[in-house]
């Protein structure tokens, strides 16, 4: 009787272990059915960060079988979310190059560096980082500004940008080109005014407190098409060319970096908390491969002059964005501080 009892107990224990193993396997991490918060490093809902994240999220949600909701919290809170959120898929980040540039420029603590998060797949690109000026500005483009300054010895040009971001890169490349081409005396008459949102910078331009401002091409486009003399603007330089758009880029104008052609498109990637489960990363990889090839997404991004990112897996995206970051570090290290150039 005792033997039968012991045998029964053993069978029950073994069965329980098998059941537990089966339960564990069934509970493997997945995005399917989850509510996913997508933080972005902007508080605006009209700029490229929100528009790209919202557009991609709609397509990605279908592929993942999840509910994705974009939350425009700003760079500081988005980066912090990658350090404080659980690595369970409930919170992810979609953002562009400011993810690493803020750290490269020293605007954010090194705890927020790429090494302290998981890099996911690339989702889109925006070639339309643009400088704009009032339509009646006395120079036709960025390359013409130092010529204007040569002809007008008492003049200065004030350029509104943000410290620690893409506009900062655009400015220091331009400033260094002016130094190399026209000399430091001319370059030092190009001054920085620190601007915040696109709306803030537009107001600075219209109020006469800035001469050239940095923003996304799509956010300035309407002002290049108006006949209102107070609001009317023109594009004076893009960091890269946009297919089908006539506005000229640094490359078109001969603005170079160390004598070589310079182009810069924003790369938007998914970023995740550190030690993110490999199963969830693989799920994202597979879903983004399908999303990036979706004609609907390609058309929706194209209407806004954006483009889907050439498909890269999370591992390939990590190699890519690390290399891009490292390639800009030398420029950042030798660039003058904006504090020394602020008006």
Describe the protein.
Helices cover 45% and strands 20% of the residues. With 343 residues, it is of the alpha/beta class. Helix 2 (48-64) crosses helix 11. Residues 1-24 have low confidence and may be disordered.
Topology:
Elements: H1 2-26, E1 35-40, H2 48-64, E2 67-72, H3 75-84, E3 91-95, H4 98-104, E4 117-126, E5 129-134, H5 145-151, E6 157-161, H6 166-182, H7 184-187, E7 190-194, H8 198-206, E8 212-216, H9 217-221, E9 233-238, H10 250-253, E10 256-257, E11 260-261, E12 266-273, H11 278-292, H12 295-303, E13 307-308, H13 314-334, H14 338-341
Parallel strand pairs: 1-2, 1-3, 6-7, 6-8
Antiparallel strand pairs: 3-12, 4-12, 4-13, 5-8, 5-9, 10-11
Helix pairs in contact: 2-11
Q: Please provide the ordered H/E string of secondary-structure elements.
A: HEHEHEHEEHEHHEHEHEHEEEHHEHH
Total of helices: 14
Roughly how much helix do the residues carry, as a percent range?
A: 40-55%
Q: How widely separated are the two ends?
A: 95 Å
- What fraction of the residues are assigned to beta strands by DSSP? 15-25%
Largest sheet: 6 strands, mixed
DSSP E strands, number: 13
Short description:
This protein is an alpha/beta fold and 343 residues long. Helix content is 45%, strand content 20%.
What characteristics describe this protein?
6-stranded mixed beta sheet, single chain, 13 strands, 343 residues, 14 helices, 5-stranded mixed beta sheet, alpha/beta
């Amino acid at each position: 009787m005792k033997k039968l009892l012991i045998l029964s107990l053993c069978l029950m224990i073994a069965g329980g272990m098998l059941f537990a193993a089966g339960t564990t396997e069934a509970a493997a991490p997945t995005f399917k059915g989850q509510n996913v918060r997508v933080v972005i490093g902007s508080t605006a809902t009209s700029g490229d960060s929100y528009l790209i994240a919202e557009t991609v999220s709609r397509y990605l949600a279908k592929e993942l079988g999840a509910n994705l909701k974009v939350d425009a919290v700003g760079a500081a809170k988005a980066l912090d979310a990658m350090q404080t959120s659980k690595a369970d898929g409930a919170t992810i980040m979609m953002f562009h190059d400011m993810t690493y540039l803020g750290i490269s420029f020293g605007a954010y603590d090194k705890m927020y560096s790429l090494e302290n998060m998981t890099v996911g797949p690339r989702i889109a690109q925006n070639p339309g980082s643009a400088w704009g000026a009032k339509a009646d500005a006395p120079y036709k483009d960025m390359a013409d500004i130092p010529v204007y300054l040569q002809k007008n010895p008492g003049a200065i040009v004030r350029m509104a940008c943000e410290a620690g971001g893409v506009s900062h890169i655009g400015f220091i490349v331009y400033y260094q080109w002016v130094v190399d081409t026209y000399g430091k005396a001319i370059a030092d008459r190009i001054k920085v005014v620190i601007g915040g949102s696109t709306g803030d910078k537009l107001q600075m331009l219209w109020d006469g407190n800035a001469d050239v401002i940095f923003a996304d091409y799509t956010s300035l486009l309407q002002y290049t098409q108006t006949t209102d003399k107070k609001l009317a603007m023109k594009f004076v330089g893009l960091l890269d060319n946009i297919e089908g758009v006539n506005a000229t880029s640094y490359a078109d104008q001969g603005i170079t970096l160390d004598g070589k052609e310079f182009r810069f498109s924003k790369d938007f990637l998914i970023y995740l908390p550190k030690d993110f489960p490999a199963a969830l990363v693989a799920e994202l990889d597979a879903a983004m491969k399908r999303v990036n090839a979706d004609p609907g997404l390609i058309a929706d991004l194209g209407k806004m002059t954006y483009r889907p990112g050439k498909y890269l897996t999370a591992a390939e995206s990590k190699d890519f964005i690390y290399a891009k970051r490292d390639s800009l570090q030398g420029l950042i290290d030798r660039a003058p501080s904006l504090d020394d150039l602020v008006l």
